[in-house]
Design a protein that fits this description.
This is DNA-binding response regulator, OmpR family, contains REC and winged-helix (WHTH) domain. GO terms for molecular function: phosphorelay response regulator activity; transcription cis-regulatory region binding. This protein is of the alpha/beta class. It contains 8 helices and 12 strands. The mean pLDDT is 88.
Length: 228
């Protein structure tokens, strides 16, 4: 698991950092809110441990900015403020859990692991992944490397089925049923959809994922594919 610790107190940060590193986790450490936002922008983290009392930009603001930027990484807030209103404010700003200082490291570990398990379950429902290609099932956005593509309903349906079955072949009949039910239009509309999809997710890159299986259908492959 890769964890970002955002804590400006050196002693507390050192204890938490060493504890999780000894457990085999990969750790990054940010001393400020600005540094944390930059690290999250450039890296993928499974959990963020975020202190509330940070200099200049406090943890509440950091968490709010993460959510505004579309980051859904679980955030566990650490704070010395244990009043009911403080805890509720943390959740209102987008935190997933809240731990009041001083705390037991085993309790912190248990909560971090629970957040990661919860996220793993969500990702399997909300996102499909094949190689470097990701598809959000909620926003209909496909991502390959640094490129994002918002798909129309037809292209989303085609890619979703291909990714869900990958690397197995999806027949033309299965794709047509998913797109139109029993009212498939005349002409090569399906082929046109696949062509558009290739132009988005394959053409800008050195190899294409979508492979045509002649007279049968299409599949996603994790090695260079030939042209249609």
């Amino acid at each position: 698991m890769k964890i970002l610790l955002v804590e400006d107190h050196a002693d507390i940060a050192g204890v938490i950092f060493d504890y999780f590193e000894l457990l085999g986790h990969t750790m990054d450490h940010a001393l400020s809110g600005t540094q944390a936002l930059n690290l999250v922008e450039d890296n993928h983290y499974d959990v963020v441990i975020l202190d509330v009392m940070l200099p200049k930009m406090d943890g509440m603001t950091v968490c709010k900015k993460l959510r505004e930027n579309g980051v859904d990484t679980p955030v566990l807030m650490l704070t010395a403020m244990g009043e009911r209103e403080d805890i509720l404010s943390g959740f209102d700003h987008g935190a997933d859990d809240y731990l009041v200082k001083p705390f037991d490291l085993k309790i912190l570990e248990a909560r971090v692991l629970a957040l990661n398990r919860r996220r793993t379950g969500q990702v399997s429902v909300r996102e499909l992944v094949f190689g470097e290609l990701r598809l959000s099932l909620t926003s209909h956005v496909a991502v390959r490397r640094e490129c994002q593509f918002t798909l129309n309903p037809s292209l989303f349906t085609v890619l979703k089925l291909l990714m869900a079955r990958a690397p197995l072949v999806v027949t033309k009949e299965e794709l047509a049923t998913a797109l139109w039910g029993d009212d498939e239009p005349e002409g090569n509309v399906l082929r046109s959809h696949v062509y558009q999809l290739r132009n988005l997710i394959d053409k800008p890159f050195e190899f294409g994922y979508i492979r045509t299986v002649p007279k049968i259908g299409y599949q996603l492959v994790d090695k260079p594919s030939g042209a249609e």
